[in-house]
Amino acid sequence: MIKFIKAFCFICLLSAVSIAFSQEFKREKYNFNADWKLKTGDLKGAEKNNFNDNKWERITLPHAYNQNEAFKKDIENLTTGIVWYRKNFKLPQGISNKKVFLEFEGIRHAGEIYINGAKIGLHENGVMAFGLDISNYVKPFPFQNVVALRIDNDWKYREQSSNATYQWNDKNFNANYGGIPKNVFLHITDKLYQTLPLYSNLETTGTYIYASQINIANKSAVINAESQLKNEFSVSKTVTYQVELFDLDNKKIAEFSGNKTTIAPGETKTVKASQVINDLHFWSWGYGYLYTAKTILIVDGKEVDAVATKTGFRKTEFNNGEIVLNDRVIQMKGYAQRTSNEWPALGMSVPAWMSDFSNQLMVESNANLVRWMHVTPWKQDVESCDRVGLMQAMPAGDAEKDAKGNQWIQRVNLMRDAIIYNRNNPSIVFYECGNESISEVHMQEMKNLKDTYDPHGGRAIGSREMLDSNVAEYGGEMLYINKSARKPMWATEYSRDEGMRKYWDEYSPPFHKEGDGPLYRDKDASDYNHNQDRHAIEDVIRWNDYFVERPGTGKRVNSGGVNIIFSDSNTHHRGESNYRTSGEVDPMRIPKDGFFAHQVMWDGWVDIEKQRTHILGHWNYSDATIKNEYVVSSGEKVELFVNGKSKGFGKRSNTFLFTFENIPFEAGTLKAVSYDAQGKNLSEDKKITAGTPFAIKLTPHTNPNGFGADGSDVALVDVEVVDKNGQRCPTNNAMIHFTLTGNATWLGGIAQGPDNYILSKDLPVENGVNRIMIQSTPQSGAISISAQSNDLQLATITFNTRAVSVENGLSKQLPGKDLPSNLQRGPTPETASYSIKRTPVFISHATALANNDDAYKSYDDNELTEWTNDGKVSTGRIVYTLSAPSQINQCVVKFTGWRTKSYPIRILADGKEVFKGNTSQSLGYITLDLIPILAKEITIELTGINTEKDGFDKIVEVDPTKELDLYKDKMAAEAKGQLRIVEIEFYKKQDEE
């Protein structure tokens, strides 16, 4: 009997082994964020498996060890030093003799990585993702493996091999959330596999999916797939490379294969396949249509490896001074956003749905581009922009200048890694090589990287400035307006004003006087202590500079710009708070009035396509209040009504701003109606006086797939003070006390006060509203939040978190995997995005009384050249001969010293005066209206001496000594008889034959 039992057990064991080995192995990607521990300080032996970490803090990644200081402390005071992270994990059962990789989306700043006590890697750039092959260091189930990281986020960290610091480890703009603030993944593959797009450490490039021969009208393109393979078997393998394409509904729409390939032992090889696909949906602005390309390796008829790449297809062009998306010209309208994209008490380490929440708000403000500043965004934000339909400008890493030596090598390596990692993301349209001009040699080196690793991605590579570069594929200064008839020029940041959401105007609690606040570098800082109304008005004034030079206004055009910044940031600041308040939303993403102003001005690809009107502020004042009312509208004229009675039409300025002076407050309804030139009603907006504060209202925002009990998911809750009708009370600033029960951690919100109320359960609303956050724990269950305040009806809200499966430190629930795409704006329209506003008249040649050989430089489409006389009024004369006689009605000109210098000039058309006056200071170009006279020659001449005064002296650079325009002549301010022209253009009416 005993022999029989032993035999039976042996047969069962053989059977189990046979079943286990008959199951086909499938490549897996695991969420590796769960069950980490951290401890600050440099601890001896913390890399060893037997190290006692029982008293360490338990966390779920992503989690920066100092993230709860976000917005509590100034960027310069964020905690730095050494921190250790540890995690125990087991490989899945049955995994042996396979490849195992770790993928870190990034650490800050530098880390030494250990597996089971052995040091396996070092990563130091503090920005980009990197990979580690841990196959030979991990042991199979049921062994408890240990991964440990020693991370140093010192501001002055030096690269170990070169002793060089990193340019982008900078206290101005790169908030230092230290440790592991991004996601981590574990990959298990067979020994014949498609590599990961992780060049650092692994030196592999992964899979590349792109479209070619794109036909927008026919909705077709050739879809190409390329995968880098590695064979780590001891024998050759013959592989069939197969591609399956799935649409947004996960329906398979195509299947195609490449040629069979034999790959030798130890060999790395790239395989390819392509096919024409019809009925495509092209990715577009506000239309985040994505496909999944599944690339499969088949050996002897069996699938041995498969990689799913989510991507999108779109067509781009960069020429004639314009940017073209899917055959339609688009002017850049968006934000220069700090790459940290941070939130209070969480820093950058937010769940993927919150990245969508924030980035989609940019799209809702009608932005089409986000320019991440200085360093590459983390993959979560990159993928988020894919989903929401927001174009991106992706930097590598820099500061405010070019680099040399080891620091330049660091920048090149970072750009290489970033291109490889992000080249399948359709939202990336620009690669940025620097926040300042770089040398032509360096520009060529960066372009070579793009041409090597992303030759088919439809992206332009360039840098801030690079105005006369023959290599850069786009350019554009900071603050100023550039134009071009060749490569597109767009402003990499503009409108540096700041203003806190708390301050409506001087007539609303807390009655902040416009501009009041501390000095900045011992100078007036009123532009950084704005009220909301003034901040929004400045947004209008600054954008109008770009709007008037948009495509359709001539041969040389401007391709837009990005407003700095979208959300208030825990970075370099100039106003009264300890963080930057330039945002169009506050740190919790509650809109300021500037958000709605941009909605009005930006609702179109180039020209306005949807009419909007927005009244700045609110309509809740004391009975004696008389104030100016401001309306932002895309109409030709705007009429204001108070309780149905007209207050007349507003004074229009800067295209979009309408001012109504001295309007007495009268409780009820304030309404603005906009009209076209013929009096047709286009759009309207209204504000209604709220009643007495009555109750607190709570409104939740959670993950579309449910509030996950994983220790990292977050719920947002809007907190409003409302009247009996449920209308927000916009001048209420009541203190609210919160109570939290259940399996959640309190994160709170932000407001002006002690430590900015970070993590406090007592938080005031500002202008009647605020927002708080709670974070889940790894235990699911019910959560309740109550909010109460004196004399207000309290409110309570409840949540139930869903369980998240984690086994031995691994989860198959990947961050962001099932989040929906935003398709709200629909596919790219087939109509033209602009109409022609005026017709350029071209210059045949020019003659001047001084420096005649340089006269052509005043119209050579190069903003780094100029024509100037010799400093005498008598020689301040230049004559332009037109290509054909024309009735010129406008002269558009960029004078050197555009911020500071006013030129007294007159303009003659065939000897007849058509303009006389002093030119205004500007941030670039000015337009002079001329009396239209048929003429062949246009003469510009000085009528007196120049005057000097900076018209924008409150707009400052980070570097106060930086040259603000082309004043390279140190004696220019003393030369009172100069006439200096950077670029000049002439236009006639569009209807002139």
Automatic annotation (TrEMBL):
Residues 821-831 have a biased composition (Polar residues). Gene3D superfamilies: Galactose-binding domain-like (2.60.120.260), Glycosidases (3.20.20.80), Immunoglobulins (2.60.40.10). The keyword Hydrolase applies. Residues 705-798 form the Glycoside hydrolase family domain. Residues 215-314 form the Glycoside hydrolase family 2 immunoglobulin-like beta-sandwich domain. One of its GO terms (biological process) is carbohydrate metabolic process. GO terms for molecular function: hydrolase activity, hydrolyzing O-glycosyl compounds. Residues 811-831 are annotated as: Disordered. Residues 82-169 form the Beta-mannosidase-like galactose-binding domain. Residues 1-22 form the signal peptide. Coiled coil: none annotated. Residues 630-681 form the DUF4982 domain. Residues 319-455 form the Glycoside hydrolase family 2 catalytic domain. Keywords: Glycosidase, Hydrolase, Signal. InterPro entries: Beta-gal/glucu_dom_sf (IPR036156), Beta-mannosidase-like_N2 (IPR054593), DUF4982 (IPR032311), Galactose-bd-like_sf (IPR008979), GH (IPR017853), GH2_Domain-Containing (IPR051913), Glyco_hydro2_dom5 (IPR040605), Glyco_hydro_2_cat (IPR006103). Belongs to the glycosyl hydrolase 2 family. This is Glycoside hydrolase family 2 protein.
